[in-house]
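User: tokens in, sequence out, please.
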């Protein structure tokens, strides 16, 4: 039996914005970000945002101009795409971490909803991606973000991403929450990290293809302990 030694690496590509509410066995695996590429075995991926990257950052503060001083219900482009830059087919997963706060938001007609733990950004997942679960990110104050896990899959079967091919964007745009002013969100910086994960498709634990089964193999090998519900 041949031994394979592989490591999993996790880094993030993220959205950083400023809220402007005022007035309102072992397997080949890999993970990558927009700016750093980590090669593990012969499975490699790139995580990019082609449309997001077109926006300028005139004041050079690391935040594109479109993401500064956002108003409630503002929609901006954000299009994370995973590209298979290796030579083997790969199954692809991604996590999107959305900050949340216990806040009051308004309906479209201006009426207020009761205070509740609410994501600060929303988006619509594109076809080709399947949500697998949610993990609550906590600090000393309680839940501060929801981390959503997605599989590049059709129904209950992972989609094999060929070498040189790219996924559809996980989503194409994000919208800020319609938060009532005066809740401490004004001029605060918020991040929305995105991680991409890849694992070989061949010889995968007896031919596993169901997202839950494949993700279990990945997490077992890479010591990922988060449980997504």
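Assistant: Sequence out:
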């Amino acid at each position: 039996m041949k031994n394979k030694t592989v490591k999993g690496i996790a880094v993030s590509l993220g959205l950083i914005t400023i809220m402007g509410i005022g007035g309102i066995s072992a397997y080949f695996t890999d993970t990558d970000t927009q700016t750093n590429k980590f090669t593990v075995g012969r499975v490699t991926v790139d995580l990019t945002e082609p449309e997001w990257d077109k926006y300028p950052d005139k004041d050079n503060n690391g935040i594109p101009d479109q993401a500064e001083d956002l108003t409630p219900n503002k929609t901006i482009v954000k299009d994370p795409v995973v590209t298979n830059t290796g030579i083997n087919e790969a199954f692809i997963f991604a996590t999107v971490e959305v900050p949340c706060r216990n806040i009051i938001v308004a309906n479209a007609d201006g009426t207020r909803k009761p205070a509740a733990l609410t994501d600060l950004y929303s988006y619509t997942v594109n076809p080709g991606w399947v949500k697998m679960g949610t993990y609550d990110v906590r600090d000393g104050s309680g839940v501060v973000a929801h981390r959503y896990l997605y599989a590049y899959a059709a129904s209950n079967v992972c989609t094999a991403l060929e070498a040189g091919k790219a996924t559809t964007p996980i989503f194409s745009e994000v919208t800020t929450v319609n938060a009532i002013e005066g809740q401490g969100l004004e001029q605060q910086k918020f991040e929305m990290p995105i991680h991409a994960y890849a694992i070989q498709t061949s010889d995968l634990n007896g031919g596993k293809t169901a997202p839950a089964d494949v993700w279990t193999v990945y997490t077992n090998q890479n010591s990922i302990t988060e449980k997504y519900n």
